[in-house]
Design a protein that fits this description.
- The chain is mainly alpha-helical.
- Helix content is 83%, strand content 0%.
- It is built from 17 helices and no strands.
- The radius of gyration is 23 Å and the shape is globular.
């Protein structure tokens, strides 16, 4: 990249990281505090309502989002067609949800669920606005504005949820945190939609964009359904106590994985999309994104895996002690997800998402088949059923990038070697600290391990920065081409 382009990219990376951090702080920590205030019964009722709301929002959120970012040339007709198609779909879903709210509440035997669903029924419309405008900002790489708006909306949502929880409103506190977050972001986005340019609509253009968007949505559907069906099956084999340990360990690893992989996609999808038609630039961006993502993020999961036993022991709850043995395996699966994300993002950018959908479908079938065949009786067996298909699918996950991107498996593996060195450095430092601090108490030993890992990670970052500077000059990628934001 040219110096100016490198500056823009580094600035974008910083704002993407801040958005991910803000989302984790406000959404996750806020929900934990609210849940402690309202109690498990109200949280369970809210969980049912939010699960149904997320199903309603799925298509308005995903159908046109990546298609707008990926499109090589975006016109006002494209945006208008996508916007009004998403709005019509959202209005239909909102109306259906409002009509079905009473019936759903009776089916669950929870009269209070009806009012919650009626309040959430309007959200698909807000989600459609958020999806289209967020895609336009991502395409233009205006991550600073996107991060500021998202942070403000999440802060307002969390504050509203906490106030309602303190007022004793029960499930409404959680519903408000979710709904106000989407609604506030839609209101912040609305003035920037440029309504005059949205007047035009073409059914054929909407079908064209939606055809690609439907392929992208299938990826999110396959990936999301794997976790849901996995735990549905485990409930037939594991005792509830063991199932709870597996579920909590899985949520810890999965939430961190989601934050990192979503950050990679948001940062690099616009960059790959701008390089369509230039095979050399695509390969160079793939090499750099794989190198940076794995070298910066994979060592964090190595550190979590090595410290998991002492970390769970430090928490002190005897009923969760088994998690210390489960987290390392789940962290291995998270590292696989990080490794494959850059190549899958490149495939998405060049318009061939069905290649990755085939791999995801294979992983889904292998995971569910492993659970049925193994019939797990312990948490470790259950976690291996989840992780083993991911590990075995890694060569296929990298190989699918060969045809559309032109990157060989050898080139992609070479980009991962620095991450192996960084992870090895952190592992050696933490294991050495554990040996030195072995006689000490668990909490004190954990501090030694984390401190050693942090120092090793900072040294790795310094080394990665030097390598990036040297390699960028050798790649000769050139400046990032400009693409109109639409």
């Amino acid at each position: 990249m040219a110096p100016a382009a490198r500056g823009r990219f580094a600035n974008s990376a910083l704002w993407v990281a801040l958005e991910m951090l803000g989302g984790s702080v406000f959404s996750s920590l806020g929900l934990i505090v609210i849940a402690g205030l309202i109690g498990p019964a109200d949280l369970g009722l809210a969980a049912i309502a939010l699960a149904l709301a997320q199903i309603m929002n799925f298509l308005p959120e995903t159908l046109f989002h990546d298609a707008i970012v990926q499109r090589r040339r975006l016109t006002a007709l494209d945006i208008g067609s996508a916007f009004w198609s998403a709005m019509m779909l959202a209005i239909g879903l909102s109306g259906g949800a409002a009509l079905a709210a009473g019936w759903i509440a009776r089916w669950y035997g929870q009269p209070g669920l009806s009012s919650l669903l009626l309040a959430l029924a309007v959200l698909p419309i807000a989600s459609a606005v958020v999806s289209i405008q967020t895609a336009r900002l991502r395409r233009a790489m205006r991550f600073r504005l996107l991060t500021l708006r998202a942070t403000v909306s999440r802060a307002l949502a969390t504050a509203a949820g906490l106030v309602l929880a303190l007022m004793g409103c029960g499930a409404w506190a959680v519903v408000a945190q979710y709904g106000i977050g989407i609604g506030a972001l839609a209101l912040l986005h609305a003035p920037g939609l440029n309504w005059r340019r949205l007047r035009r609509f073409s059914l054929s253009r909407a079908r064209q964009i939606g055809h690609f968007g439907l392929k992208c949505s299938s990826l999110y559907f396959l990936d999301g359904m794997r976790g849901r069906l996995y735990f549905m099956l485990l409930g037939q084999y594991l005792p509830l106590g063991v199932l709870g340990q597996v579920n909590l360990a899985w949520r810890i690893a999965d939430s961190l994985t989601a934050v990192t992989t979503v950050g990679i996609v948001r940062l690099y999808l616009p960059l790959f999309a701008r390089a369509q038609g230039n095979a050399r630039r695509l390969r160079a961006y793939l090499h750099e994104s794989s190198f940076l993502a794995t070298a910066l993020l994979a060592p964090l999961f190595v550190g979590l895996a090595l410290s998991s036993a002492d970390l769970v022991g430090w928490l002190g709850a005897a009923k969760w002690q088994g998690m210390g043995d489960l987290l390392p395996w789940l962290c291995a699966g998270a590292i696989v997800a990080i490794i494959r994300t850059p190549s899958w993002t490149a495939i998405l950018a060049v318009g061939q998402p069905l290649l990755t959908a085939s791999v995801l479908a294979g992983i889904l079938v292998a995971t569910l088949g492993a659970v049925v065949i193994v019939s797990p009786e312990t948490g470790m067996q259950a976690v291996i059923c989840w992780t083993a298909p991911l590990l075995l699918s890694l060569p296929a996950s990298l190989a699918v990038a060969g045809r559309p991107i032109g990157a060989t498996l050898r080139e992609q593996v070479a980009a991962l070697l620095p991450a192996v060195m960084c992870a090895g450095t952190i592992a050696a430092a933490m294991i050495g600290a554990r040996v030195i601090a072995e006689p000490k108490a668990g909490g004190e030993r954990l501090v030694y391990e984390l401190a050693a890992g942090a120092v090793a990670y900072l040294l790795s970052l310094w080394w990665v920065r030097r390598v990036v500077r040297e390699r960028r000059g050798a790649m000769g990628v050139g400046a990032v081409p400009a693409v109109p934001a639409g």
